[in-house]
Amino acid sequence: MKMFNNQSLFVKLFLVTLISLIAVSVLTLAITIRMSEQLFLQTFSITNTKLLNQMKSNLESYNGAVATTTNLVSQSGTIRNYLTNGDTDSVSLAMQTFNMTQRMKTISSNLSAYEVSIMVLGANGRSYTTDPWYGSATAAELEDHPITERTIRDPHKIVYQLYHDDSQSGTWKEPVLVASKALYHHGSDEIYGTMYVMIRDSIFKPFYANFTSDGNDVLLMNDEGLVISSNQQELIGMTDKALLTKVVADQRSGELGKNADLLGDDRILFSEYLPEFDFYLVNLIDKDAAIGQMVNVRALTLTTLGIVGISLIIVYFMTRKMTRSLRGLIHQMSGIPTKGFSNYVDVSTSSLEARELGNAFNFMLDELNDYVDRLVQTEKQQRNAELAALQMQINPHFLYNTLASIKFLVQQGDRERAAETINSLITLLQNTVSDVESTIPVRQEIETLKNYVYINHVRYGDKIRVNYFIEPDVMDYEVPKLIIQPFIENAFFHAFNHKGEGSILIMISSQHEQLICEVVDNGDGMEMGSVRERPVREDGSGLPETKLPQTKRNRKLFSGIGIKNVDERIKIMYGEDYGVQITSKLGEGTKVRISLPLISS
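The structure corresponding to this sequence follows.
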């Protein structure tokens, strides 16, 4: 909404019209598709139910033929003898094999309508198959296969299972549906063999594939979610628990046309349970393909675009006429950031409303010019006064103590060191009482610091060492006077109250188009105040706004300028992007970072 309010009148009208037209078009399209879906489901449910019944009838016919065959095999004494007799002489074995062949030919005629292979496997290790070249597994492979294990667990039922060998050396060239049945004595239920009726998927698929088409897929799924057969070859052998859950729910609710997902596609689900197979017959309709045939998306899209285009042309000419004068006034006003407050707008050719606005704006420019002149003069006077107040604060106690130290050196007879101390003091005073607005080169500021450090070593000893690391390229850059000294002073008299000795490191370098002065000590450290974030520019400049710490011993021994005054002084001279940043940790020391602009001498 904030972005919208900041746009021009034309953009606002354009967006409102565009959004309104798109909303109406999308809503109309959604309602049309929804109504088409409902009509599709109502009409297709009736048709699809008939198709499912026809598929079910085809599968039941095959199951009936398999059931008849298994009954004949289990009732045949010839087959039972062949599968239960022990070793005999070759003549007897040949006779039994001949009888077995004749009997199996008779029985297999019940499945002559289907291209299948029948295999029987006896407890005595003998086996027989009606088609050795069918491409099925060997008797040895089936004997220890899970298909046989499951069949023996449920000997009174025909068990339909998938045999699918994905290995390169597998015997089976394609998925095979195996109908297996345990052969047992009816009196004792003792199992003497197993019967297998095997049909290739390519032979089994026509039972339902004639009712499929693009976007209309059929698959058989067992109670574990395993796809036994499908017109989509890549689905065979895949397990989909989520689809099975929806199929089971569909069967329990009795509702038709539920939504389902298959391989990431939105489908409409129809299902039928086949108790003879213990399979679910699932029909999945591609929703997009079905609805796409009923709704002409291309025509709707072109119509919508045409309406939107005509409406936008009308809006354009209307708003252009209404906002022409305002656009001209805005164009003239936009030059003010570059031309300043002297860029008065021309209102001679504007409309009444724009002319009134232009006159008011020109009057405002006159007032602003007067105000800015007065403000600049006031700010200049205030700035000079503040700089003078901050800089011209020499603490007399520093002079007293330094002179006392010089007197002591003279009394001790160390005239050379006393003279050097006097020279250092003279240099400090010269740099302090001169022009308050002047800046000095870095080399001169370093010389002043060295004189100050020398005086402190004379007075207090050299337990606190000071080291300097200055980039040669920054020696000629300008810095305000006494900008680093207050932090050296603070380190001398507050940073080593507990440790007693240590070192102070002074580093000056150029970074990101800024002059960076750092004072680092390894003294006692302190607890820091809260830090408020301030934006940092893309070039890395700009500092976090830091609440500078307040020390318990607020002594100002030389300049009288506290560390907070240094930060305020920098901001007055150069702006808010520069200043002082302090970080410290108890027991480890304190780091002061001063950022200044790069100003050459």
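Residues 167-172, 530-547, 551-560 have pLDDT under 50 and may be disordered.
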